[in-house]
Amino acid sequence: MKKKKRPVGKILMILTVIFFYLPIIFVIVFSFNSSKSLTRFESFSLTWYEKLFSSRSMMESLYTTIIVAVVATFVSTIAGTIAAIGLSKSKRVVHDLVLQLNDFPIMNPEIVTAISLMIFFITLGVERGLVTMMLAHIAFCIPYVILSVMPKIRSLDPNLADAAMDLGCTPWQALTKVMVPQIMPGIISGALIAFTMSFDDFVISYFVTGRGVKNLSIMVYTMSKRVNPSINAVSTLVVALITIVLLIINIVPVIKEKRLLKSERSSK
Asked: Model confidence over 116-166: pLDDT tens digits?
């Protein structure tokens, strides 16, 4: 007799999806609420978005968040990719030791990392502000980039760069024209993780900033101390921005692949 399939797994999956996405949908819906109530929807309105964009402090925090996230993503992606390629050519002992050290900041509680960085900047006499926030974000983003790029490097032929140089490539050409295109999915994945981690970081940003420099996470934290529906508008914009980035990263490779197939068919 055939055993009846029980839809327990499907039910759990549906409940998990509801658990994760229902609060996000709730925030998006109530960001268009005309009243200050966070539990009762009265009518559709863009009031809180108008107040959000007319707030100078909110716009400054949004500008700071984007600048820090873009700089941290750019620098950490380059540094992490170079570090991962260098580790692939290192001795086994050095490779394993550095990877273990790389895992430590990821497993370390954020509050410990935040306090450590704060004490580090104070000890060096560095005035906390935008620069220290950028440096801190770059520091905690690099390990994630290395972890994303390393699996792609392991899947490559270890003699690929040597073969490219034997065929006439310079070391720089072998790196940029041979190795990097092969590991590009890992680089993009690491950059996306770095951008997301930097964009919504609060704990580390809160401890390493100063001189009135605030990102969106710190601004939302200060707003949460009182009932302010603008929090819903801010959260909706953050969700929209991250969704757009995800769509671009997933759609662009598909478009490129279709164009490549069309060019191949037309050339035949």
From this structure: 999 999 998 888 888 999 999 999 999 999 988 888 888 887 777 778 887
Burial class (CB in 10 A: 0-12, 13-18, 19+), 206: middle
25-76 pLDDT, tens per residue? 888 888 888 777 777 777 888 888 888 888 788 888 888 888 999 999 999 9
Angle between helices 56-88 and 130-154 (to 10 degrees): 40
Cα–Cα distances (Å) from 15 to 8, 24, 27, in that order, read 11, 15, 19
Which own/partner contact pairs does 189-192 have at CB distance under 8 Å and 24+ positions apart? 189/148, 190/76, 190/77, 190/80, 190/81, 190/144, 190/145, 190/146, 190/147, 190/148, 190/149, 191/73, 191/77, 191/145, 192/245, 192/246, 192/249
This prediction has a pTM of: 0.79
